[in-house]
Design a protein that fits this description.
This protein is an alpha+beta fold. About 40% of the residues lie in helices and about 15% in strands. It has 4 helices and 5 strands, in the order ααβαββαββ. The strands form 2 sheets. The chain has a 3-stranded antiparallel beta sheet with strand order 2-3-4. The N and C termini lie far apart (about 65 Å).
């Protein structure tokens, strides 16, 4: 009877340990560059007040100012960039975001509207020649041979933050 009880306790302990270990997903800390909702809202409002109305007046219509990519698309693109950059022996990867505009008379999905596209970058290794007397910020160069990511969904009309 005692051996049966010990076996049951041991099995229960093992099952509890497995459940505990499986359910312990490590917490992911946010990057240092995250900002508060209030700060994001203030940045958007300043953009609207200082740039957006000028752009709309020049175009003669309300352009988009926000763009949406699915997380799945972004994750796949980052994974692709890491793979292709790794094949080129590149490290210290990053992403540059460019503003663009689809030509008015084109077959693009949102002809005449703004867009953004993402271009992978790599940080150039510093050399003693670049250091000199003053500290030089490392340069991040666009990576050739890896196509940029485009075709997000732009809000028409834009969605306010």
């Amino acid at each position: 009877m005692k051996s049966l009880l010990r076996s049951m306790l041991a099995c229960t302990a093992v099952v509890a340990l497995i459940i505990f270990c499986v359910s312990c997903d490590p917490q992911v800390e946010p990057p240092q560059q995250t900002i508060s909702y209030e700060e994001a809202n203030a940045l958007e409002e300043d953009f609207i007040e200082t740039r957006y109305n000028v752009i709309n007046a020049a175009l003669g219509y309300e352009d988009t100012r926000e763009f949406w990519f699915s997380l799945d698309t972004l994750k796949k693109y980052i994974e692709y960039v890491e793979q292709e950059a790794g094949n080129q022996g590149l490290e210290n990867l990053g992403m540059r975001i460019y503003f663009g505009a689809y030509p008015q008379n084109s077959n693009y999905p949102d002809a005449g509207y703004s867009t953004v596209f993402l271009v992978p970058t790599t940080q150039q290794a510093s050399s003693d020649l670049r250091k000199g007397f003053l500290p030089v910020q490392p340069s991040n160069n666009n990576i050739g041979g890896i196509p940029p990511l485009n075709y997000s969904q732009g809000g028409q009309p834009p969605t306010n933050y």
